[in-house]
């Protein structure tokens, strides 16, 4: 696969390949309502075993690579590349942030690390984000990130609870990246030293 499971280190967060070892940390933050807009549903149970199964399910999906978002020793969420298509040099980023870290530096720095890795290291020319049209908070986050809203895909997916979902599509291309990168570095108040 074009994408390899590497560790991405920022000033505030560390992204490490998601494994069953992260299950106890994620289960500690279990809140079923946080999965309401997730296209892949939620763990069957909110205990460690439920999260182990959920992580295995995510990691077994073809064309997907998952990372745990860590702040110190704590688990702050999960971020993934999905729809990885090397032939067209494109992929999508999906994110799940646990409640204590929502609205903090976690989302912008995690996205910064993933975008930088995709565009600068892997040579991606397009990074896409797909947001449930009902999730206004995520739409605002995409716009603050600097992603371009491309439109709404009507009846794009059926969620695990049976809801027929419309999805808002955003993207950042390699042409957009210098502007987005500068904005994120200013927002985070830093430039990463050498990688």
UniProtKB/TrEMBL annotation:
Pfam family, one: Acetyltransf_3
Keyword field: Acyltransferase, Transferase
Top-level taxon in the UniProt lineage: Bacteria
EC class name: transferase
InterPro entries with a match to the protein in the record: Acyl_CoA_acyltransferase, GNAT_dom
Molecular function via GO: acyltransferase activity, transferring groups other than amino-acyl groups
Start and end residues of each N-acetyltransferase domain: 13-175
PROSITE patterns hit by this protein: GNAT (PS51186)
UniProt EC number: 2.3.1.-
ATP-binding in keyword set: no
Name of the protein in its database record: Putative ribosomal N-acetyltransferase YdaF
Gene from which the chain derives: ydaF_1
């Amino acid at each position: 696969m074009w994408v390899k499971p590497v560790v991405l280190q920022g000033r505030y967060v560390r992204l490490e390949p998601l494994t069953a070892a992260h299950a106890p940390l994620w289960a500690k933050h279990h809140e079923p309502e946080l999965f309401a807009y997730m296209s892949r549903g939620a763990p069957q149970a909110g205990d460690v075993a439920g999260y182990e199964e959920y992580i295995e399910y995510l990691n077994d999906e073809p064309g997907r690579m998952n990372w745990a978002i860590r702040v110190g020793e704590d688990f702050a969420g999960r971020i993934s590349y999905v729809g990885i298509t090397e032939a067209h040099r494109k992929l999508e980023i999906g994110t799940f942030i646990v409640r204590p870290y929502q609205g903090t530096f976690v989302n912008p720095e995690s996205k910064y690390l993933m975008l930088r890795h995709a565009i600068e290291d892997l040579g991606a020319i397009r990074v896409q984000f797909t947001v449930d049209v009902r999730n206004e908070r995520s739409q605002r986050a995409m716009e603050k990130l600097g992603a371009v809203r491309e439109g709404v895909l009507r009846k794009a997916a059926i969620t695990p609870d049976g809801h027929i979902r419309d999805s808002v599509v955003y993207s950042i291309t390699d042409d957009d990246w210098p502007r987005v990168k500068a904005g994120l570095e200013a927002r985070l108040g830093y430039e990463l030293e050498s990688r």
